[in-house]
Amino acid sequence: MTDGTARVLVVEDDDILRELLTLLLEIEGFEVLPAGNGAQGLEILQRTAVDVVVLDLMMPVMDGFAFIQAIADHNPRPRVIVLSAAAGGEQAAELQHAGIDAAVRKPVDFKELLAHLRSLSGGAA
Amino acid sequence: MSLSRRQLDKGANISRTLHEIPPQRSQAIAALAATGVIFLLVLRMLAPVNGLFYDAAIRLDKGPQARDVVLVGVAQREDPAQTDWTALVANLTASGAVAVAFTEPVAVRAAAIPVFSTGAPAAVADGAKADPTVAALAPAVYGIHRNQALVFERSGEQLLSLEAAVSGVGPGTPFYVRFDGGFEGIPLVALADVVAGRVPSELITGRIAVIDLAAPGSVGLTTPVTPDAPVMSAARFHAFAIQTLLSGRAVRDLGLPVAAGLVATSAFIGAAAYSRVRPRRAVAVVVGVTLAILAAGFAALRWGNTLLPVAELLLIQAVLSLFVWQRRESAQDEALEALRATLEAQVKAIGTSTATGDVGHAEKLLGLEASLLVQITPAGQLVDMPDGFDGLGLAEGGKLLIRAAIDEDAPVREKTADGLVWAVPLSVAGRLRGLWIARPTQAAGQHPTFARLLAEVADEVAQFLPASTDESTAHGSEVADSVAALRARMAVLEEVLGLASAGLGVYTPLGKEVFATAGMRQLLSDAGASTEPDAVELAAALCGLPEPRVAEALRFVIAEQSAITLPLASSADEYCVLRALWLASLGGHTGGHLLLQVVDLTDAARAEEAIRTMGTQLDLLVRNDLEAVSLAAKLLERADLPIIYRTRALERMGAAIQRAKTRFDATAPFMIPRASLDANALCPVDLRTVLARALVGARRTGLQVELDVPRTAAAVIAPPKRLSALVGAIVRHLGGGIPAGPVAIAVAEGIETTTVEFFGIASGLPLARLAEFLDGTRQPDSTDLRLIAAICSEIKGWGGQLMVRDEAAGRVGFVLTLRKLA
User: Fold this and answer.
1) pLDDT, averaged across chain B
2) Which of B587, B630, B652 shows the shortest C-beta gap to A107?
3) A60: nearest CA in chain B?
4) First vs last C-alpha separation in chain A
């Protein structure tokens, strides 16, 4: 977090969705770092401290599950919000067990996503 | 933000612009000509009623004026022989008549009277000599009465020579005679009144009395009285009429109120032709005048033989109406063009030197009290709600007015307590970009061409929309149509998103309506499911099965990366099934998702591949696009969104829509029937493998599993012996999955369906033997089995489903349901 602004890493392979999410979050005052897949997200994490990761699960190169495993030992470990069409029910429980902080079902309820982001970033942004 | 501007330019004024455009000379001449022609036509039609026009008239070479002549009418029913003509003449002369003339018929019938004669003027002159105060009229040629020549000689001087005819007149009404220089009215009195002394002496004193026999109206206007004379031509008749009208005396004789009315009517019609009246009013004028003239024409027919003239008048009126209309349009076009040129010059001059959004000059030019500019996004959203609505008196009806203007794409007006308020669509390059809300002054608003002026000026005013929208408009315009066209569908898609998020795709295999959300929602509602059920809840609700069993079925699908089909309890009559598919993620990496499909097999004519492809395309590929559009819409809904963000959101929305369209197009080939392809190409999957895997899954889960065979696929396997071979292969393929043992077979036939059931009960038929029967390698002994074998070997043109049922522990049932193909 810099100057009270939460830094969010958006990992989404769909470039259109990624940009729109970036726009929406920037409008809300977040500093957004976009990444096209888990591998790119990891590279960013190695260079920059991130408060929250907004993560898509189904991605090429490195999907969301692999990304979650990869950052398990990252210090400091960012909080993770998963965006998934199947982010409910039993799978949500499995995701939380894997270390996910929150899950937002697609189509994204942006208010819900914002609430999670502000909660996980300590109310910043 | 209100964009209203009151900085009115001092140099322009719409009233002056509208009303002080100097009319061209041709316009004025045309309008005056129209007025004159209409005036003449109206008079002309009224003339017969008033007895104005006669085929002939009395012509005086010199001498008396109208006031010098009195006509004494003798009704035809009266017997001239019973009339004391001498006494009559004596009475007339005693009353003050200076001379008495008899028309020719009177002279003939009252031949006993010695003082007149017929024939040549010489004879008349001779008769006149007998009594210088009495003369006879020469035979007539035309007219209701006749064309007559009167030679009246007094004191050796020929005083009168006239042609006389009367029509449509009676005692007490004027008798018009055409003297040189025009018509004059002549009093007409009845013979009986003269004899009885009831004619006032002042009516006759100093006048010439012309005694006529025939009754008024006995013959037509152009009827020749003289035997063998030709009928008077219509041209000559009209020439007389026009000559009379032009003399001006007719107006005087009609009376001041009638003449004033005619002049006013003509002036109004002329004004309509001259000014730029509204089309509706111009039509009303033309129609009204036409009807009036028609009525007059029929009235003329009632009194005379004027069919030809009336037809001619109607034709003239029609031509005149067209002329009036053309002039009106032409005058409007010219005036508007002049105004437009003026506006363009002033708008350009002012627009470059004043602040953006300044429409003051236009307000002034058009005579507006106030106006607002309202910006609209390409998606049809109002960016700037007009705060000034209150000032325009549109607090309640403003949005409706705006909506009406957008829908109609034309100026729309709303009547308020303060007067009319107009909403004018503003377009740039054919794209709706805003609205101009204008309240004109009362004078300007009532001008018939005000709406047209607004529309004309709108293009100029549109240039004053906020420049901040320009950069986004270019791209927004490109996607505007797509957004508008897809808007309704996007709403449906967004609804479907809620279902799709649960892994649900909804469509028919025919693809006629891919997103049958209404029916789907009804199904959900009927099943008592919540609006956003998860896959298990939804499938259970649709199928009427317990959730644990459905969960097992779905886990099977996921574990086997396969598909099963569950019967839909609520739509069984329509052969709808719920298909659960596992769709692997694209790109080859692991993962995937569960897809539930509601498949209407009633109309199923698609191969398995088409169904699978559609499911993959629509659910996997379009999902992100819909999500993107939804996110972009969320962005655009924000009124405080900076322009750079708006631009990027619009671009991204356009890209998402384009991508979705591309992907929709990609599915199109699968929507096309491929009847021309080899039948086997329609069934690329190995049915036996599918069936076997499903059966294994069914046994594992203990579920009812129905395997539907699309009819196109069934057609492939339906030729003789092919179906039996398939069933036999299935049975054999079951291998260890089905306990070997006796089975029972039941057959039920209907008109449209044939159902064959195999029950794995102890009835003595091993499955291996059944396979032999179905293969045709062995003939069964029982009737039922022979029937089964016959059906399976002779089946043609049927589609069907083979359902494997887990009846109970250790017992498996097969149901082969066959349906006739359409």
Assistant:
1) 51
2) B630
3) B587
4) 9
